[in-house]
Amino acid sequence: MITFERVTRQYQGGAVALRDVSFHLDPGEMVFLTGHSGAGKSTLLRLVLMLEKATRGQVIVDGRNLSRTSMRTAPQVRRNVGMIFQDHKLLKDKTVFDNVSLPLIIAGLRYQDIRKRVRAALDKVGLLSKEKAWPLTLSGGEQQRVGIARAIVGMPPVLLADEPTGNLDPELSRELFGLFRQLNDQGVTVLIASHDLALIRSMGRRVLVLSQGSLVDDIPGADIAGTRA
Amino acid sequence: MSIAGFRRQARAWGRRQLFSLFSSLGTLMSHRVGTLMTILVLGIAMALPVGLYITVKNLRALDFQQEQWGTITVFLKADIGEEQALALQGLIDQQSGARTEVISPAIGMEQFREASGFGQALDMFEENPLPWVLLITPEPAEDEALEAVVVRIGDWLQQRVEVDLVQADYKWLQRLAGLLELGDALISLLTVLFSLAVVVVVSNTIRMDVANRAEEIQVLSLVGAGNGFIRQPFLYSGFWYGLLGALLALLLFNLCLYYLSQPLERLLDAYGNSFTVHNLGAGGLLLVLLAGGLLGFFGAWVSVQRYLNKIRADGMLGRV
Fold it and tell me: What is the pairing mode between strands A189-193 and A158-162?
């Protein structure tokens, strides 16, 4: 589903964010990406979302080689990838419903269908009762779940999350990871960047470790002491 | 692409357009004061050329109503009698393009007595000092200018031995025609200048809208919105600004016209004229509204094109 082949991302001025990174994610996999701040986690996710392009190497997402396509196709690529941000990136002047419906409006769906799917997505994250609420009246955990609802409402085959639990307490973080696992169980490929090692360990899934832009470890799920063997 | 697929895409496109149209209207409504000020500026800017246009149009209508302004008055020599006067009238009538009225000295005296109010003072004349007079009203053919006919007939009469003096007001007509021409030129100039003003005002307003909504643009782009989808609400906002500005311009203009209509009618009454003030027709109204909307759309387009590119160049778009 996601393939990196010897990907290097170098910025103007010489700073190298990713160095010769190769890995492959099968459809339906759930993988964690970890490493210290500045190790290149965000850059890797940005390449998948086509927010930047690899300087060298190939990034292939859902059969499409992003290194060979024009930036003009970026919107199409992003519609196939649900992205969850640490700071939620919700629009404060729109209700929860309107925020979640954005990807469907962009896709040009009928209002009846939008309504149905937004409510289904909100139901999945347990926020159906808050559809008319404003994002700022919600707690951090709830806002994050609205962000997840927005990411999954378009039913993309791939879900990315960048430090989704960064601002949450351990209890909420565990709940959130449980939610990701549910989505993964339904067949969505999930890639989560996180440095919450304890939590990652408890999930028992494959882990990619980045250090200073290089992929230094790729640990299979079987080797992670998961609570859910 | 299959036909069904094409249809589906077209419908999706239509829904996105509708969404942009209404969401842009919603955005305008949510910043009422700012929107109102912008529309006020646009309204005033657009009311000026419209006002001048209507002024010139009314002057032109005045021109056509007032045929007597082209009247030629011919004073015959004192020794010319009725027979010769009538003969000359016959000659003039043979020439196409004019209607002639003969005024005898007696009738002339009667009219003068009534008009001047000298009354009995005129009785002191032992004999009528007035000559025979011909009043010629040119009736130009469709493709002929009034002044041309006046000049032609005037020149011909000037050379007749019976004629003492030819008086024609066509100089006045020429001046009016010149003024109207100047008015037309001014309208063109004002229209261009104020159209430019509308484009600049809308463009600047939209530029600020884009800046204020940089975050929203960023989020939309992150969840897969294409450039078109991001651009559309701003373009429609520009369209609404222009359309509402034009609407306000028409409102302002009609208020002015209403305010001016009474003194104007009194003035025209003094010229012995039953005159109705011309307003913009339905076509004119539509044209002003359409022009306003299109200018606004264009202004927004200029701004969005420039500014979205700048946002992208700054790397704001897509910074996670």
Answer: parallel
